[in-house]
Amino acid sequence: MASDSGTAVSVDSAHVGMKLQLYSFFGSSCSWRARIALNLKGLEYEYKAVNLCKREQFSPEFSKLNPLCYVPVLVDGDIVVSDSFAILLYLEEKYPEHPLLPCDLQKKAINFQAANIVCSSIQPFQNDTAVNYIEEKINSDEKFVWTRYHIGKGFAALEKLLKGSAGRYATGEEVFLADLFLAPQIHAAINRFQVDMSKFPLLCRLNKVYNELPEFRAAMPEMQPDFEKL
Ligand SMILES: N[C@@H](CCC(=O)N[C@@H](CS)C(=O)NCC(=O)O)C(=O)O
Questions:
Q1: pTM of the entire structure?
Q2: Distance, CA 104 to ligand 1 centroid (Å)?
Q3: Does 2 sit in the ligand 1 pocket, CB within 6 Å?
Q4: Which residue in 47, 58, 61, 88 is deepest, having the highest Cβ count within 10 Å?
Q5: For residue 120, is pLDDT > 80?
Q6: Can you list the positions of beta strands (E) in the chain?
Q7: What is d(CA 19, CA 8) in angstroms, rounded to the nearest whole number?
Q8: Atom of ligand 1 nearest to the CA of 124
Q9: What is the pLDDT of residues 196-229, one digit of tens each?
Q10: Starting at the edge strand that comes first in sequence, how are the strands of the sheet with 79-82 ordered?
Q11: Nearest 5 degrees, angle CA 170-CA 172-CA 178?
Q12: Which sign does the torsion angle of CA 155, 27, 212, 33 carry?
């Protein structure tokens, strides 16, 4: 679970041997995935807030950690990992408790596909960088047309992909990688982009189940130390 270290980004060079640090923004769906993984694995971490509204991701200190200037970034001693997918796979290797991947190869492949649909084919189209660009160059309405199109396309593919594998969770009776990507993405679709979810019954059902899990709830935006109403 997270402990707060204040709000501004600060990078200290003497972090070796310290507990895990997660550079995160409360409203970031990518950070949320990493927070769920840390919670599921029962890992204590220091919450290092990066305020995207104040553009702190572009600060010289933070861009040293991730030259792409995106959250999340995980610091584990002298190892720095940026990108939520890389962070989750890193955590899985180093901290095997509560595995994020099933042993069954087919199920594992479905988890990789579902995670990547969110990570590569949905989230990049709704990222602040993309959405702000559209708002600036075209108009505010167009950003909803654009994001809803890409979310809808990805969600339709996820419904098909998970149809045969879903149980209580995306790929059966246990929480795995796919679920960590789906929960924040479904939340963003509903709350940020007001997507009509009626065409995605499986994702709606999963969303209800995710909202009941303590590790998922503790990772929600409003539970983070840097939360503020936007
Ligand atoms: N593939 C990366 C994407 C990271 C990303 O897009 N992060 C967003 C927040 S969810 C961000 O930092 N946006 C800031 C910006 O667009 O300037 C990951 O999964 O971590």
A1: 0.93
A2: 30
A3: no
A4: 88
A5: yes
A6: 2-4, 20-24, 45-49, 73-76, 79-82
A7: 18
A8: 6
A9: 999 999 999 999 999 999 999 999 999 999 999 8
A10: 2-4, 45-49, 20-24, 73-76, 79-82
A11: 30
A12: positive
Dihedral-angle region of residue 93 (phi above 0 means left; psi in -120 to 50 means alpha; beta otherwise): alpha
ipTM value of the model? 0.99
Is the model's pLDDT at 89 over the cut of 70?
A: yes
Q: What is the CA radius of gyration of the chain?
A: 17
Beta-ladder partners of 75:
21, 80
CB contact at 8 A, 56 and 62: yes
Q: Is 62 in the pocket of ligand 1 (CB under 6 A)?
A: no
Helix, strand, or coil (residue 172) = strand
User: Which one-letter amino acid corresponds to residue 172?
Assistant: G
Residue to mutate, 71, 74, 135, ligand 1, most ligand atoms under 8 Å from C-beta: 71
- Rounded CA gap, 133 and 146, in Å? 11
* Ligand 1 contact via 185 beta carbon (within 6 Å): no
**Lookup: tokens for 44:** 């204590």
Beta strand ranges found along 78-169 (DSSP E): 79-82
* Nearest Cα residue to 46 out of 8, 79, 75: 75
Render pLDDT for 97-118 as a digit per residue (tens, 0 to 9): 999 999 999 999 999 999 999 9
pLDDT of the residue at 107 = 98
